[in-house]
Specification:
The complex is a heterodimer. In chain A, 0% of the residues lie in helices and 53% in strands. Chain A is mainly β. In chain A, the strands form 3 sheets. In chain A, strands 2, 4, 5, 6, 9, 12 and 13 form a 7-stranded mixed beta sheet that branches. In chain A, strands 1-3-8-7 form a 4-stranded antiparallel beta sheet, with no helix packed on it. A two-stranded antiparallel sheet of chain A has the order 10-11. The radius of gyration of chain A is 14 Å and the shape is globular. By secondary structure, chain B is an all-beta fold. In chain B, 40% of the residues are buried. The chains are: A mainly beta, B mainly beta.
Chain lengths: 129, 110
């Protein structure tokens, strides 16, 4: 079955760029049919959607983070990545990657119709000098 | 603050039934699929319900979802100690142009 694994630095300095990678195993990103998302959870708080990418490279970001977020995909490595620039302590959180199956009706395609059915275990990122 | 409002906590005795509400608007629940996630302590979220009331393979049928207008609900029947977790509703919001999670509800089994 498909598994996701986040990786990256656990500590990032303020004003720097947070970079995380999600490695997909048991399935191929390039086969299409799925969206690949990033979600974060501040300490003791709820879940916050960051954005998603399709294998083709098309992306969609949370408007509140859009100016600082870049999500990219490397199909040759079966990975997708998150970059969050100009971080502050407010970006300290557990970051999750997740998969959702694409659903297309006769008129539109939907990202989360089927929900996010596979999640990584999460990785904690602390922003501190 | 999320646009999807849930009660902060609910509690009930074992083998009883609890219901968690999720209140939204026409731009999210009223016009888009609702998903529910369970997050056990220290774990990643797990998909419980998709498209309002459908169960993914492997999810216990003690869980059920429903939607009416701009509100959705998650019910857990035959409550068990292993159900102690945080539960989140989620839906796409056409006004915010993003996927929004509910405020979350902590379920405690007395």
């Amino acid at each position: 079955q498909v598994q996701l694994q986040e990786s990256g630095p656990g500590l990032v300095k303020p004003s720097q760029t947070l970079s995380l990678t999600c490695t997909v195993s048991g399935g191929s990103i390039s086969s299409g049919g799925y969206y690949w998302s990033w979600i974060r959870q501040h300490p003791g708080k709820g879940l916050e959607w960051i954005g998603y990418i399709y294998y083709s490279g098309s992306t969609y970001y949370n408007p509140s983070l859009k100016s600082r977020v870049t999500i990219s995909v490397d199909t040759s490595k079966n990975q997708f990545s998150l970059k969050l620039s100009s971080v502050t302590a407010a970006d300290t959180a557990v970051y999750y990657c997740a998969r959702s199956e694409r659903y297309c009706s006769s008129t539109s395609c939907y990202t989360y119709y089927y929900g996010m059915d596979v999640w990584g275990q999460g990785t904690t990122v602390t922003v501190s000098s | 603050q999320s646009v999807l409002t849930q009660p902060p906590s609910v509690s009930e005795a074992p083998r009883q039934r609890v219901t968690i509400s999720c209140s939204g608007s026409s731009s999210n629940i009223g016009n888009n699929a609702v998903n529910w996630y369970q997050q056990l302590p220290g774990k990643a979220p797990k998909l419980l319900i998709y498209y309002d009331d459908l169960l993914p393979s492997g999810v216990s049928d003690r869980f059920s979802g429903s939607k009416s207008g701009t509100s959705a609900s998650l019910a857990i029947s035959g409550l068990q100690s292993e159900d102690e977790a945080d539960y989140y509703c989620a839906a796409w919001d056409d006004s915010l142009n993003g996927y929004v999670f509910g405020t979350g509800t902590k379920v405690t089994v007395l």
